[in-house]
Design a protein that fits this description.
Helix content: 25-40%
CATH class of the largest domain: Alpha Beta
Structural class: alpha/beta
Number of helices: 10
Distance between the termini: 48 Å
CATH superfamily of the largest domain: P-loop containing nucleotide triphosphate hydrolases
Largest sheet: 13 strands, mixed
Number of domains: 2
Number of strands: 15
Amino acid sequence: MSYIETIWKRHAYHQKSFLLSIICVPLSIVYRIASYLKRGFYERWTRKRIIVDDPVITIGNLTVGGSGKTPLTMYIVEHLQSLDFNCHVISRAYGSNYDSQFAHYNGEWDTKGFFGDEVESYISRIPNLLLSIGKQRGLLVKKYSKFVKHQVFILDDALQYWRLIKDFQIILVHGKYLFGNRNIFPNGPLRENEEELKRAAIVIVYSPQNSLEFYQKYLNVEQLFFARQKIVSFENQQGKSTRISELKKKRCISVCSIAHPDSFIDSINSLEIELLKSFKFADHHSYTSEDQSIIENYMQENDIDYLLMTEKDSPKWKKPNNKILISRLNLIISESEKFDKILLDYIAQKMKNI
């Protein structure tokens, strides 16, 4: 993780810096005005907006950085697929690099390139997935509307995408960091004001640190759920599993490039696996040959048995290494039956009109 990012996170989430505030406040004003104008344009000129008959589930957060969007998307896809729905994930695909305006996956890609760590982790976990990526996500939804029967669109990180009319939104809030210093980016972590929680059909507190009553009072929302990430297994690059109990006796280190790396480290520590060192990089960081060599040299010099990483990191680690173990995560949602029912009631209502 870069020095600048470390300083900014401290300012945004822990201890405000007067100097950073002087620099960031004018930029936050510009960001707020630009966001207001963009949203206002589409809300005023409704004929420019896109609406489809298919169910559209939008997953997002009010802050920059991670709050569990990727594991929640996987949870919803796997659950709906088990009920014979055709899930079509639409993603901006941060960090991607491909040859065309859009890219579509249906067993294989229709173009060549790298499609981003989140997208690659979706395919690794759920190979029988419909997936489309591009900046203009509304055009993708319009293009593939009624593409297959019983289709449900799931938009990953599209809460602030205004061109598409979205009628079912799930907002995630990180239970540890909440809204930080409550200022708009870049003077704080917020993309939008906290009042925008009212748009959500469901609010999920990811990795909660306090009681349900605390979050209900703090967030002031009705449909509130908790979600926790649990590591269920570790696999090598060939897909062979290693028992978690075996790792408790081994010399392990970790590497990750996610928004809040402490969440991954805490998940490992909860399994009573001792980490001798953790390498942390910026969110969506692409590992260079130099990065990989530094870590592998450290492993060799310190007699390390295993390097643990997330599913999002695995596609970006190009060097084969039999000491790499990839964590497989499940999302545990409180009152999951109630959560699933709200989701299915919405889908059933939408599909009545198709």
